């Protein structure tokens, strides 16, 4: 026999509207702070940006790492989706590949915490944002099969994004648009009309005497 719950039980279990509002304010403030300063940002600054007290922040996120990971998962997914949408709107397969990288790297340059973490997480297969990126890149590779040089793999294209992301990070302050030049140099080497065959993955880069 079903037992009726005391009146108000459902209300107590559901988060209050103001609690939900505070949580969203904290996440939005943390996103802006992490984008501007990276993961070293002080939680007191995040609380100040969000308009809540430290006690409220810690009730929602007992550890700074909890907040950072929540925001990074969301922002990483949004970053990957923005790059996907740029590729979908492109006029042809090569433009789709180019637009994907340009949008991904532009977003990357605007988010310090993603810059800090992408090179560490790109090979984690169960990370949602990485899964999104891998699927998009696989689709782009298949779509551009006729214009890509033979042997180019999804991992090649994903690692190119990692490498160019590192270039964004090291040149961001001194030459903030240099990555776009490097992108076009790199993409030129991926074209099908590039005559030299790709080396085997297991082949040594340098033969020592």
From TrEMBL:
InterPro entries: Homeodomain-like_sf, HTH-type_TetR-like_transc_reg, HTH_TetR, Tet_transcr_reg_TetR-rel_C_sf. The keyword Metal-binding does not apply. Residues 20-79 form the HTH tetR-type domain. Keywords: DNA-binding, Transcription, Transcription regulation. Residues 42-61 bind DNA. Pfam families: TetR_N. Gene3D superfamilies: Tetracycline Repressor, domain 2. Coiled coil: none annotated. GO terms for molecular function: DNA-binding transcription factor activity; transcription cis-regulatory region binding. This is TetR/AcrR family transcriptional regulator.
């Amino acid at each position: 026999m079903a037992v009726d719950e005391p009146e108000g039980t459902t209300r107590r279990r559901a988060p209050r509207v103001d609690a939900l509002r505070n949580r969203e304010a904290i996440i939005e403030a943390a996103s802006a702070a992490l984008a501007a300063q990276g993961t070293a940002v002080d939680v007191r600054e995040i609380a100040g940006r969000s308009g809540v007290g430290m006690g409220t922040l810690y009730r929602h996120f007992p550890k700074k790492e909890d907040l950072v990971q929540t925001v990074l998962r969301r922002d990483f997914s949004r970053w990957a989706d923005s790059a996907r949408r740029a590729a979908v709107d492109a006029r042809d397969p090569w433009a789709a590949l180019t637009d994907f990288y340009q949008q991904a790297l532009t977003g990357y340059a605007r988010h310090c915490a993603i810059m800090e973490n992408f090179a560490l997480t790109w090979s984690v297969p169960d990370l949602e944002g990485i899964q999104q990126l891998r699927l998009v890149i696989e689709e782009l590779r298949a779509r551009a099969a006729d214009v890509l040089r033979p042997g180019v793999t999804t991992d090649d294209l994903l690692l190119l994004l990692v490498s160019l992301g590192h270039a964004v990070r090291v040149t961001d302050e001194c030459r903030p648009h240099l990555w776009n030049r490097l992108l076009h140099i790199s993409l030129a080497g991926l074209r099908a009309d590039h005559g030299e065959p790709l080396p085997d993955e297991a082949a040594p880069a340098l033969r020592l005497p």
